[in-house]
Structure formats: C-alpha cells, structure tokens
Design goal:
heterodimer, A: mainly alpha, 9 helices, 68% helix, B: 373 residues, Oxidized Rhodanese, domain 1, 2 domains, five-stranded parallel β-sheet
C-alpha cells in the first residue's frame, strides 16, 4: 500500500513542460483573477521577510522595536504573518509540488550545467538567494510582485525595475561568457 | 457587485475564506510556474545566454494577457481601478534593487517564486536559494536603517502609471505594449532558431491565432476607453464606522456603506471651517486646500496655503492629486458657497481621489466664522 502510494506520487512518467505561450496565458489569467477578486496581484518575496520578522519577534522581540524595517511589520501587537502574501507563498509551494507530482517531476536532484560541481552549484544558489532577496526587498518586490503584477497594472516604477532586473542579469551574463567563468557560473 | 470584492482585499481571521482564496491563487501560481519548467534553473538561465527565451515568452504573455483583461474590465466598469493595488514608484531604490536582483538571478539561477516551484519538487539548488533568500531578506531588515531616508524618499512618485507619464489614455498604451511584445516574441523565436538551433517546423500554428486574438483584445480595450467620471462616481461607495448607543451596554460599532450622493445628502462629506482650520496643526494629516473659484476671486481673498485650481482645470491636476501619499492626505474643496465645491468634490470622488471633503458653507461661511469683531 505504502509502496503503491509512493509510486503513484514519485513514479509517474515525466511529462513535457507546457508550451511557453500556453503557460504564459494561464499565468496571465491567474494574475487577472487575483486582481479581479482581491485587488492584489501576485508576490512572494514579501512573505520571506515577514517570516523573518516573525522569527526575530520570537527570538529577540526587543530587537524588533529597534529596527525600523521590522517595526513596520512586527511592532507592538502586529502579527507579521497576518498578510495575504503568506497564503499565496505557501499555496505556491503546494502548487509547485502538485504540478511536480502530476507531471512526474518529483525528484531529489540538483539542476546545473555540466561544467560545475554539485558543491559549487549549491554554494552559488545559496549566494544567489541572499543577493536576490536583498535586492527584492530594496525594490519592494521581486519578479512576481513588481515585474508581473506591477507590469500588468502599468505601474511606472515596476516597469523601471523590470528593465533593471534584465539589465543587471544580461550585464553579468555577458561577463560570465566573456571571461569564460563556466566553472563558477551556475548552469551552462 | 463591485470588483475587486471588499471582503477579499486582505486576509482576516474573521473571514477564513480569505485564506482559502489567497491560498488557491498561490497554488495556481506555483502550479503554472512548475508546469512552464521554471523549477529547473537551466531553463531560466538559458534566457540570459540567448539559447532559450522561455522566460521572456512566459513573462510577457502573462503580463499582456492580464493587462488586456484588467483594463478591459476597468473600461467596462466591472472593476474599480482605484481599488487595484498599483506598486508605488520609488525610482532610486527600485533601480538599484532591480540591478541587484539581476545579479542574484545569474548567480543563483532562480527568482524567489521559481525557487519555490523548484524546492517543492525536490531540487536541492532551489531549496538552498530559498534558504539564502531568508538570509538576504534578514540582512536587508538589519541594514535598512543606514539608508532609511534614501529608501523611503529618493525618487518617490507615489501611485504613478505609465499612461500618466506619457499622457496618453491607458488603452492606447496597452495596445502599444502588446504590439511591442508580439514583435519581441517574433525576435525571440529568431534568436532561438539561430543561436539555440531550435526547429520551428513543429511549433503549434495556433500561437499565431493567439497573437491575433491578443492584439484584437487590446484594440477592443482601446476602443472601449476609460469609463466616464460620472459612471465611476455612481459606483463609488463610502464605508463609515458609526457608534450606536444601546441602553446601558457599551456602544456598538456599526459599519455603514453610503453612496456618494448619500454622503452629500447626509452632509457627511462636509467639514466645518473649524475642522478645516484645525487640520493644519494635526501632525497626522496633510491637508490640501483646493480653491476651485476663478483666479480673480482667489486673488481677492483666499484661505492661507489654498491652491487655486478653477473648476474647469481640475481634471488636469487629478493625476498629481492621485500621486500624493493617499494615507494621510485630506483634500478640502472650497468655493464661495458650496455649489462649485460640490461639483469639484464629485470630480475628485469619480476620479478615485481618496479623503476628499467640502468646506461647509464655503469661503462665505469661513469669513463669517473667523471675522474679527
């Protein structure tokens, strides 16, 4: 029974990815429905800093009162987890898992290019996460909260941020290629 | 029914369904990202070496589809755009943050939400990116104090949309963006053919009909145009919490919803000269006095710090009023009696300006109240 269940979840044949335009259309409809029903778009990086704030509030509540950024989310009787972005965050984790299960893509593995070792890839993905989320909080939103959601509402600042993200990424990718840094540059 | 739905604009324990709805939206989001292949960092990074432009295609299809549906619904008067969250513009921190995100993307191979899709399907690199994210967000909270002023004020423009920047109707801009996006998709396919050596003979033909449908949708949005101020005025509702005395028990807070016309009839939209005067000395509010009389009247006598915006020119300054920080800004419309001030109030309310009031009795009553001797 347990093995059957395990095979039903992990042993399914791997299906191909959705066509990009089809995936984009579905994502666009989901984004529209989010605005239509709730007035809010999509997002996720806000949840990361709210979970951080909740942890700090448990470990060192006095520190929250001394840090303006945390104070806004967790000061006084505010619960940093009481925000719409948290159910969206956990829903996205669950939805990703569901898609992986349905399409036979659940697998403990590391996605990387052939020229890079597992250890380097792990270090780089951790460092990338640190850098990305620092930038995302500075810009008040990530690719979802700014580029996607702000892009669809024509928010001026979000379009600027979107171009800045692509600009930063293309500039660094250019140097990676130019200097042949494949050994440390993640994937290709 | 007015969209977005009032009960679902935020989560609250009083309405558990709000958690269910936001959770379902998140699930659909994560499911779609994983189905697009975004749990695999190689697919994401291919974008920046011109091998495979899936990221661009998915992202811009999503943005343009959502944009056409959203502005279509706004144009038809189904959705109140004033209730839609538009990211406020902070140019300086936005540009620097965006560049940092681009660097993080090339190094880490994910963005925050795609790392969720990756981690939840068992990818160790996705999990480590998520973990690094918690550290990065924590470091931001710890260091923000050093540049708090710059972060909160530099290049701040409030709620600003691109149609306001370019001075064109939103529908025209939507059509232009979709034309550019379709051209980019064509260019992306050329790059994939040349650099990624991809065979396009097996690509589905239906994508061309999809492109035509998207363009036709955008053209329809432009044709429908924005709803008139009168249409929007008729749909605006005001929520007021009022205390009801009930015998000996503690007073009960009851939320009433009024239409704009009821706000006028019950005189809830009026402030007395004393209240308008007191607002100057209240740290918590930022009063803006809009004198809508003619320039001649204004020059003859006006309330200190009042801005002269003759009624006929009011619609020109609405974009500026909308970009004031809405949370603590209070607008007070002023005319000699109340007639022009009420007309101005209707324009403000219909345009989605929040916290607008009318000076009770206008300048005449102001002078009568504060005249000396």
């Amino acid at each position: 029974m347990a093995i059957q269940l395990k095979n039903a979840i992990f042993g399914r044949p791997e299906k191909p990815f959705l066509h990009p335009y089809l995936a984009g259309t579905i994502l666009g409809v989901v984004l529209f429905l989010a605005f239509f029903l709730t007035g809010n778009g999509l997002g996720s990086s806000g949840a990361t800093s709210r979970i951080d704030a909740a942890l700090v509030d448990i470990v060192a509540p006095a520190h929250v009162d001394n840090t303006p950024y945390l104070l806004k989310m967790a000061g006084g009787d505010k619960n940093p987890l009481d925000d719409w972005i948290l159910p969206v965050f956990f829903g996205a984790l669950l939805g990703g898992f569901a898609s992986g299960a349905v399409n036979g893509r659940l697998k403990i593995t590391t996605t990387k290019g052939p020229n890079i070792s597992n250890g380097t890839r792990w270090l780089m993905s951790f460092a990338g996460g640190v850098i990305f989320l620092y930038g995302a909080r500075l810009a008040r939103g990530c690719t979802s909260g700014q580029a996607l959601s702000g892009g669809a509402t024509l928010a001026a600042g979000s379009w600027v941020i979107m171009f800045a993200i692509f600009g930063g990424a293309y500039a660094l990718a250019y140097f990676v290629r130019k200097l042949r840094l494949w050994r440390i540059a993640l994937i290709l | 029914m007015n969209f977005p739905l009032d009960t679902f604009t935020a989560v609250s324990a009083a309405n558990p369904w709000s958690y269910v709805l936001f959770g379902a939206i998140g699930m659909a989001f994560g499911y779609t990202l994983e189905s697009a292949g975004f749990g695999d960092s190689r697919k994401l990074a291919g974008q920046f070496y011109f091998r495979e432009l899936t990221v661009l295609k998915v992202m811009f299809t999503a943005i343009t589809v959502a944009m056409v549906l959203l502005f279509g619904a706004v144009g038809l008067g189904v959705v109140d755009f004033g209730q839609i969250w538009v990211n406020p513009t902070y140019l300086s921190s936005g540009v620097v943050g965006g560049l940092i995100m681009g660097v993080g993307f090339i190094i880490g191979g994910f963005c925050p939400t795609t790392s969720l899709a990756s981690a939840s399907t068992g990818r160790i690199d996705g999990m480590l990116f998520m973990l690094g994210g918690f550290v990065g967000a924590f470091l931001f909270g710890e260091t923000e104090g050093f540049f708090d002023g710059w972060y909160n004020h530099s290049g701040y423009f409030g709620r600003l949309t691109l149609d306001q920047v370019f001075g064109v109707p939103a529908g025209v801009l939507v059509l232009a963006i979709i034309a550019v996006a379709l051209f980019m998709f064509w260019g992306a396919e050329q790059l994939e053919r040349i650099i990624g050596k991809k065979d396009f003979s097996r690509e589905p033909k239906i994508r061309k009909y999809g492109a035509i449908a998207l363009f036709a949708g955008a053209a329809a949005v432009m044709f429908i145009g924005d709803p008139s101020i009168e249409d929007r005025y008729a749909k605006v509702s005001f929520k007021r919490t009022e205390m009801v005395q009930q015998g000996d028990a503690a007073p009960l807070a009851v939320v009433h919803t009024y239409t704009a016309d009821e706000m006028l009839q019950k005189r809830l939209a009026f402030v007395s000269p004393a209240e308008a005067f007191k607002a100057r000395f209240n740290q918590a509010v930022n009063p803006v006095y809009l004198d809508v009389r003619s320039e001649a009247d204004y020059n003859l006598y006006h309330i200190a710090n009042a801005m002269n915006v003759p009624l006929a020119r009011l619609s020109d300054v609405i974009p500026d009023l909308l970009s004031e920080p809405p949370a603590n800004t209070v607008f007070v419309t002023i005319s000699n009696d109340e007639t022009a001030a009420i007309a101005a109030w209707k324009v403000l309310v219909g345009s989605g300006v929040q916290n607008a009031y009318i000076l009770d009795g206008g300048v005449n009553n102001w002078i009568a109240s504060f005249r000396q001797g």
